[in-house]
Amino acid sequence: MSWLDRLKGKGAEETQTAEDRPMSDSATAPEAIEPAPASAEPTGPTIAPEPDAEAKVPAEAQSEDWSEPEEQMRRALAAAQSGDYDSALAIWEPLAREGHGRAQNNIGACFIDGLGVDQNMELAREWLELSAEAGDPVGQRNLARLYLKGLGGNRDSAHAVELYRQAAEAGDAPAQDMLSFLLFEGTGTAANMEEAKRWAKAAAEQGVASAMTRLGLISHLDAVSAAPGGTDESDAATWWRKAAEAGDPDGQALLGAAHHLGVGVPRDRIAAFAWLLRAKSGKSPLADRFFDAVRATLSPEEEAAAERRVMKAEEGVTPAP
Q: CB within 8 A of 302, min separation 6: which ones?
C-alpha cells in the first residue's frame, strides 16, 4: 500500500472541496506547513531557508532508510518548499503514524490546500486532531481555525478559543495574536480587554504586526475612557507606528488617521495621507474611512509630496513618515 493510500485511509473516501481556505498560500509552501521546533525552543519560522538541490527524497522511500526524525522533517520541509509535496508527504506519513505532532499537522495542512493530495477538510481535521492531541502548537492553532470557521465538521468557537489558548501558552505567536483578537471581540468567550492586551503584547514581542495594531487600539480605548483631562493617546500612536513600520495595513491606516486628527502625534496632513496611501495599497478597510476626507484637505503639491514619501519609503531610500 502506498503512502497516499495510507493517508486516505484516515476515514473520508470522497474529496470535500471547501468554499474558502483558512490558510495562506502566498508562499511556495503554505503557512500551515512548518518545521518541527527545536527542543525547548519556540516554534521555528513559518518557512525555513531555501533547500539545497539534494533535499529531495524518493516518494516511496521508507523511514528506516533515513536519519533521525529531525533530519527527516528538514528534508520534508525542503521538499515542500520546492513544490515536491509527493516527497514531503512520503516522509511525513510514517512519522505521523508514529505520533509526530508536526508531521501530523503538515499532512493536515496539505489536505486543507490540496497540496499533493485532493483537498479534503474532513481528513484535514482528523490529522490536525491527532497533531493537537500530540501537543503540537501549530496543529492546535490550525485545528482551532477549522473549528472557528466550521470547516471539515461542526463550528465550535468555544473549542477554538481553547485550542488557541493551548497554542498561545506554548509560545505560538500567531495563536497569541488570534486569541487576543477573540478575547477583544468576545468571540467564543467573554470579552476580556486585560487578557486581550496581555496576549497581544506577547505576540507583538515576537514581531506580529497585527498584534501591535490591536495594542494601539486597546490603548486608544483606555485613553478615551479615562477621566476628562487625563487622556493620553501617545501610547496608542506609538503602537500604531510600530505596526505601520512592520507593514500592517490597518496599523498604517490608524496612524494616518492619528496624524490627520493630531491624536497622540503632531497633526501632519502629508504624513497622514502618505500612511493612508500605503494602507489603501495594502487593502485595509480602515483606510477608506479616512482617505477621501484627508485627500480633500491637501493641495496638489501636498498630495504629490505624500506620494513621493511613499515611493521613497518603498524604495528604502528613507523611512516612511
A: 269, 270, 273
